[in-house]
Amino acid sequence: MKLAAGVFDVWTFRRDSDAIRFLLLYTSQTKADRHFNGGRFWQVPSNFVRDNETIEEAISRCLGLFGLTAAAIWVGEHAYVIYNRRFREMQLIGVYAAEVQQVDIQLESEEHSEYGWYTVDECLERVHYRGLKEGLQSVHDYVTGVQEPAAELCLYRNLV
C-alpha cells in the first residue's frame, strides 16, 4: 500500500461582523453511495498537489472549483494520517487555512449536496473525524483565534 503525501485540507473561512465562519460541505448521496457505503458526512475542501505545483497554487485551484478566491492562505500547523477508502491508500493530509470574501459558492452535485458557513463550535458539532476536528482547532488557534493572524504562517496574501 502506498502513502500519498500530497493531500491537503483547507479550512476556508470568512469574517462576519459577529464571528469567523468556516465552510463545510455535505457529501452528496451519489458520492456516499459510490464510495462510503451510503454514509454521508460534513467535510472541508480538499485535494491533491499536482506535480510542479506549489501548495498555494493547489489551494487556489481547489477553491476555484467552488468559485472562491483566497485573500490569504496560511499553514495550519497540523497534519494527520488516514486510510482513504475512496482512493484505497493511506494519506498524509496537511492542514491549511484560506480566508475568502465570498458568501455563495458553487457545488458539483456529484460531490456535495449542500454547504454552510459555521462558527468553530458549530463545525465541531458537525464533523465526525478526529483529523478534521484537530485541524480546525489548530487553524482556529494559530490563524483565526488571535487579533491578527500569524505573519510567519502566511503563505499568500492578496493585498489588493
Précis, in short:
This protein is α+β, with helices and mostly antiparallel strands and 160 residues long. Helix content is 24%, strand content 40%.
**Number of helices in the DSSP assignment:** 4
Q: What is the C-alpha radius of gyration, as a whole number of Å?
A: 15 Å
Q: What is the percentage of strand-forming residues?
A: 35-45%
Q: Domains counted in the coordinates: how many?
A: 1
> What's the CATH architecture?
Alpha-Beta Complex
What would you give as the CATH superfamily? Nucleoside Triphosphate Pyrophosphohydrolase
Overall structural class, as computed from helix and strand content, comes to alpha+beta
CATH topology name: Nucleoside Triphosphate Pyrophosphohydrolase
* Mean pLDDT, all residues: 92
Task: Provide the succession of SSEs.
Answer: EEHEEHEEEHHE
Please give the number of β-strands. 8
Residue share in helix: 10-25%
Write structural notes for this entry.
It is a single chain. This protein starts with a strand and ends with a strand. Strands 1, 2, 3, 4, 5, 6, 7 and 8 form an eight-stranded mixed sheet that branches. It has a single domain (3-157), classed as Nucleoside Triphosphate Pyrophosphohydrolase (Alpha-Beta Complex), CATH 3.90.79.10. 24% of the residues lie in helices and 40% in strands. The model has no long low-confidence stretch (mean pLDDT 92). The chain has 160 residues and is an alpha+beta fold.
